[in-house]
UniProtKB/TrEMBL annotation:
One of its GO terms (molecular function) is aminopeptidase activity. This is Xaa-Pro aminopeptidase. It comes from Proteiniclasticum ruminis. Keywords: Aminopeptidase, Hydrolase, Protease. InterPro entries: Creatin/AminoP/Spt16_N, Creatinase/aminopeptidase-like.
Length: 466
């Protein structure tokens, strides 16, 4: 275990890792295998139909089979145990059914369209369900996006709009519909928890661009710029986000989940930059200063009292991450070395990443879930401190891959593998962070933390005797 007096603050050059030039396209057999595994789970649960809800914010389970998410509207994918499927879409998304990666019949459902759009040949949801074959004699699973069961409700509680759930119940009967969101995202057995080499290559693309966006914004940050002006240095273009990008300065940090404004960055401000794209999120938070001399007297112990303990636990998170370690062991390591009652964190110290920035988490108190090859995880320890200090943050994502999976990535996606190895080399040789072979950094800046964020030269590193 690394301890705080091993942390030095010294000159570290930014990593020089190229961005991907080609975005991977998942091959057809990935989607065929996903559908096959889904049908197997349906059979185990004796489900005749599986209904998967989606909207713009919550489409990961839907996209897992179709390869896209709805824009503007909601959507409902209905899969028959035979493998046939039907996709209910509104006016503006109906054409996307033709692009589905599994064979499906697109059905126009006007209730999913935007308000006051033209209505023609309107069919009710009950009429559509009966056309598909759903009736009172079948068991139906409904997948939303939250794990309501078992902590927040029963199998008969749903996080899907009532205008859908109520009509389905009218057709199937009250007891025939059950919540099966866990089929996809439960951190122990969910279908989406384990990723293939193709998946990891696909997600690495977004993680690389998200981290490069953060790095470039930080490189160009200076006092006098507004939050919006800093955000314009992002290099991610119009790639779809997995969360709202954040550039926040000063007292606006206390607002939390808000977007950039024309608020100007001032010397001594608390400061945060983050970007999340499909596949990964990078987040950096600290003080907008060059050195402790730019801080008020009451905050000048920030480096030793606040930032170094945070960096220490972050390093230990990366160095302890490995195949077979229990989520409770990671949680307990964080709690014992970086106590909640001192540093104010309360969310899970790490979670699973997929199409969503936060899918679910195997890392919590008492978790018996072990880390497995194919998982993609976010290092996500978020302290909350008194306002005289900037709560540090150095958040990035990794994949876990055993020797077989690493060899598959190397063979199928040599450029992706090369970037992953370059990131490992930067972490190990420049920052002295020692990783298990199975830890595969997806962010170009994993582990790089400059707590004085206007000082573009210095960062934390580990000092070792051996």
């Amino acid at each position: 275990m690394i301890i705080e007096n091993q942390i030095d603050y010294e000159v570290v050059e930014d990593p020089n890792i190229a961005l991907p030039c080609v975005q991977p396209v998942l091959p057809d057999d990935v989607y065929h295998n996903r559908l096959k595994r889904t049908l197997q789970e349906m059979s185990k649960r004796n489900l005749k139909y599986l209904m998967i809800y989606a909207d713009r914010e919550h489409y990961g389970n839907f996209e897992y089979l179709t390869g896209y998410g709805p824009r503007f509207e909601e959507a409902l994918l209905i899969v028959d145990q035979s493998g046939e499927s039907y996709t209910l879409l509104g006016n503006e998304c109906l054409g996307m059914a033709k692009q589905s990666r599994i064979t499906t019949e697109g059905i126009l459902f006007h209730a999913f369209s935007l308000p006051n759009q033209p209505i023609h040949d309107n069919k009710t949801l009950k009429e559509i369900l009966r056309y598909i074959g759903v009736d009172a004699n079948v068991r139906v699973g409904m997948a939303g996006w939250k794990l309501l069961y078992p902590d927040f409700g029963t199998r008969q509680d749903f996080d899907v709009p009532s205008f859908i759930v109520d009509k389905v119940k009218e057709v199937t009967g009250e007891g025939s519909l059950e919540n099966v969101t866990d089929l996809f995202i439960d951190p122990q057995y969910g279908l989406r928890v384990i990723n293939t080499a193709h998946d990891i290559a696909y997600f690495e693309f977004g993680a690389a661009y998200a981290s490069d966006a953060v790095l470039n914004m930080l490189r160009h940050t200076r006092t006098g710029l507004t939050e919006i002006e800093v955000s314009q240095y992002s290099t991610s273009g119009s790639l779809p986000t997995s969360l709202f990008p954040k550039v926040l300065a000063g007292e606006r940090m206390d607002l939390g989940m808000v977007s950039p404004t024309t608020n100007k960055l001032k010397l001594g401000d608390r400061f945060q930059v983050s970007m999340g794209l499909i596949g990964g999120q990078s987040n950096r938070r600290g003080f907008a200063v060059y050195s402790e001399a730019d801080l008020p007297e009451e905050s000048r112990d920030f480096l030793d009292k606040i930032a170094k303990p945070y960096f220490t636990v972050m390093v230990n998170w990366y160095e302890n991450m490995q195949i077979g370690v229990k989520g409770s062991e990671i949680y307990q390591m964080v709690e014992e070395t970086y106590p909640r009652n001192v540093h104010g964190w309360f969310l899970n110290p790490g979670h699973l990443i997929s199409t969503e920035e936060w899918m679910s988490s195997p890392i919590y108190e008492g978790s018996e879930i072990t880390m497995k090859s194919g998982m993609i995880l976010q290092m996500d320890i978020i302290p909350f401190l008194e306002k005289i200090y900037a709560a540090p943050n150095c958040e990035d994502g990794i994949a876990i891959g055993d020797e077989k999976l690493r060899e598959e990535i190397k063979t199928l996606y040599p450029e992706v593998y090369g970037r992953i190895m370059a990131r490992r080399e930067f972490m190990e040789k420049k920052l002295n962070i020692r990783l298990k072979p199975e830890v595969l950094p997806l962010s170009n800046i994993t582990g790089l933390y400059r707590p004085y964020m206007l000082n573009k030269d210095k960062a934390f590193v580990i000092r070792r005797e051996d």
